[in-house]
């Protein structure tokens, strides 16, 4: 007979094996399109990202400086000391590492969902995951004299610690491709 639950004797061993993970403060992470991320948190990120996406990928401004000026979201200068001045309590978007030349603009994007709405999961069950998710990615946009600007997204594996520290302890990272589609 095969059993799928640990015996009473093995439970303390399993707890001890999990203790290093609990003590290191490892956070949950979501990667890929079929990541299993909660639908409510996914939609909360999309509510911040979607209105900006057309501006990111199809700039209406004809030069990098005007393009960057038209992105009306919080900016972070990259200094740890200035991060606490950002208001992310209810989620939001922050641009950082912003730079431009005469023909290109580059910046990084940090998006956090804010606190998860207190509703059941899309499947109708009780939610038990992270209270907040966040993502980061880079944008590189080239401006050519006679062509539509071209924009590319660069997926990041993590986000700046100074921004992540502003979020609840149980906040979970989700790579940019989780929100594609």
In short:
The chain is of the alpha/beta class and 181 residues long. 24% of the residues lie in helices and 23% in strands. Strands 1, 2, 3, 4, 5, 6 and 7 form a seven-stranded mixed beta sheet that branches.
Task: Describe the fold and architecture.
This protein has 181 residues and is an alpha/beta fold. The chain has helices at 11-24, 39-57, 64-69, 161-164; strands at 29-30, 74-75, 92-100, 104-112, 133-142, 150-155, 172-174. Strands 1, 2, 3, 4, 5, 6 and 7 form a 7-stranded mixed β-sheet that branches. Strand 3 and strand 4 (104-112) form a beta hairpin. The radius of gyration is 20 Å and the shape is globular. The N and C termini lie far apart (45 Å).
Mean pLDDT over all positions: 84
**Whole-Å distance between the termini?**
45 Å
The SSE string, one letter per element, is HEHHEEEEEHE
What would you report as the Rg, rounded to the nearest angstrom? 20 Å
Describe the secondary structure blueprint for this structure.
Elements: H1 11-24, E1 29-30, H2 39-57, H3 64-69, E2 74-75, E3 92-100, E4 104-112, E5 133-142, E6 150-155, H4 161-164, E7 172-174
Parallel strand pairs: 1-7, 2-3, 5-7
Antiparallel strand pairs: 3-4, 4-5, 5-6
